[in-house]
Design a protein that fits this description.
Blueprint (H helix, E strand, L loop, with lengths): L1 H21 L8 H17 L2 H25 L5 H18 L2 H15 L2 H12 L1 H27 L1 H15 L1 H6 L2
Amino acid sequence: MCKKVLSAFSVLFAAALFVACSQPVPIADTPEARLEQARALTAIEVEAGALDGMLDEGAALAREATADMLMLELEREPSEEDLATLEAVMRAGMAEFLTAELWQETVAAVYAENFTAAELQATREFYLSPAGQKILSLQRSLDDQIGDAVESVLDVYSDEFADRIDAALAERFPEFAEGGS
């Protein structure tokens, strides 16, 4: 009887030890561990095109913001080719200074500041899963589709939106109301 109890205890102990050893060791939530996990996450994001997407969006915003200045400098309405050249120059300039390494370190620092090491590890593991890979591969397309959908919804209210903005600005800046702009 004692041998059976001892044998059963040994089996239970071995099973418990196996379960305990098969569980991942919780990751320490230190600044170093956070940064390590954040760097691993940003490497996945760069591979999926996050930096390229940000450079494209930045160049498009720069094009929009400087198109009027280009018109003044050229003393004519810029052609679509002129604007495309402006955008390409802006993107190349940003890419020269914002390298993948610098982007990763910058974004990793922000992630490490806002997430625990375990959260970053879980996010990284998700992005490596089939569902995470799908989200990453579709991110730019999803962003465009969501932007278009939101724009369509807001178009319905564009007049009301403009009236509210005009009223709020006129209240805050009475000279707007007086000038009739």
